[in-house]
Amino acid sequence: MTQPTAAMLVIGDEILSGRTRDSNMYHLAGRLTERGINLCEVRVVSDDAEAITGAVKALSGAYDHVFTSGGIGPTHDDITADCIAAAFGVHIDVRDDARALLQAHYDRQGTEFNAARQRMARIPDGATLIENPVSVAPGFTMENVHVMAGVPAVFQAMVESILPTLTGGAPLISRTRRIDRGEGDIAGPLGELAQAYPALSIGSYPFQKDGRYGANIVLRGTDAALLDEAMAKLDAAFPA
Amino acid sequence: MTQPTAAMLVIGDEILSGRTRDSNMYHLAGRLTERGINLCEVRVVSDDAEAITGAVKALSGAYDHVFTSGGIGPTHDDITADCIAAAFGVHIDVRDDARALLQAHYDRQGTEFNAARQRMARIPDGATLIENPVSVAPGFTMENVHVMAGVPAVFQAMVESILPTLTGGAPLISRTRRIDRGEGDIAGPLGELAQAYPALSIGSYPFQKDGRYGANIVLRGTDAALLDEAMAKLDAAFPA
């Protein structure tokens, strides 16, 4: 059950102020699970150089992959690329390959490739570009950190550009069973099941609906036969 | 513009696996902004003792307040209370005041107050209970860490129990202006505006709609007159 580990870093004041409800975390979490990559931690920080640089250092040292979202546009609050360069101690400037991509794009559109737009071609030395089929301005991979845009359509497209290049582990399979009883009634037998199947991750997610209590029990693992066996025991303990 | 600082810690495999889309972060972010408390960082970690304890220590040392969500129910994967006790080096056991609340609740319902349900009365020494008007089982405040349930209805009720007891700063006011031009056209004048008004936080949040580009420009600060002045300059630079 060895899977590569990953963390996500969401960069943006708009999430922390409650202005925007994050959707990139939810999207990435689902795609990584399908790919067999274990998302272990997410951090959300503001558009602050020290906060971004500190989080990049901590996460890139602790996990196999780090995925960032946000802060790579042309405006003054887009400082992610510079923070990545600072975190890895490398030089950053407008790079020829990124500039050429953007120049061709704006030439086709008849739009001026002004100083602000050239900021989007600032790429740290040693990074590899991530293709952006939506709006051209590329993301990049610096060592184990994949730097992507915050706009959901662009973020999602960049995720699809990068995912096929990463080695995943065995995909995690999950089985869900809804039990319409309070968690306090479920907890005893469920705890015994969790002890009997240490290779599975067993979670209980309680809900309340129309004044009644229940829980979705989720069994996760990479071995389908083992999951079926454990699920049969759960069914026996809580007949429908 | 001094506001208390805060962090949130979301505890739960279901967010990291992409099974559940978080809503507690979005809710808390909005309520803290209204209250004049500056949410600076969010972390999401799995139901893992080391990850939870480490994050609690880091965040409670760095911010005025920490709000946690998840992991305080009766099942085997509910380990938050024990992790908080470990993080602060205090004893934890079933506490009389919490047990009495729950005992009365289950007596009224005619439900057995079994061993699993008694787990929800485990409260670290020195903590203060947080009222739960939805389902009784309390949260608690341990030093500067406010420990709440993950079920959104319960989380939201606990937030309303705790917020009035916290001292907020001047509420952050925000003004938003939508500009239907690419960020590359907006960036130059916007950067000058940001330099001219260092007391304001000025963000640009790009969007793409029906194949056209635009951005919502958000000005945030505690001084309404200053915000109006800056917004007038933005309007002058980008007439509707």
Automatic annotation (TrEMBL), chains A, B:
InterPro entries documented for this protein: CinA, FLAD1_M, MoaB/Mog-like_dom_sf, MoaB/Mog_dom
Cited Gene3D superfamilies: MoaB/Mog-like domain (3.40.980.10)
A Pfam family hit: MoCF_biosynth
CDD domains xrefs: cinA
Domain (MoaB/Mog): residue spans on this chain: 7-170
PANTHER family: NICOTINAMIDE-NUCLEOTIDE AMIDOHYDROLASE PNCC, NMN AMIDOHYDROLASE-LIKE PROTEIN YFAY
Protein name: Molybdopterin-binding protein
Species of origin: Pseudosulfitobacter pseudonitzschiae
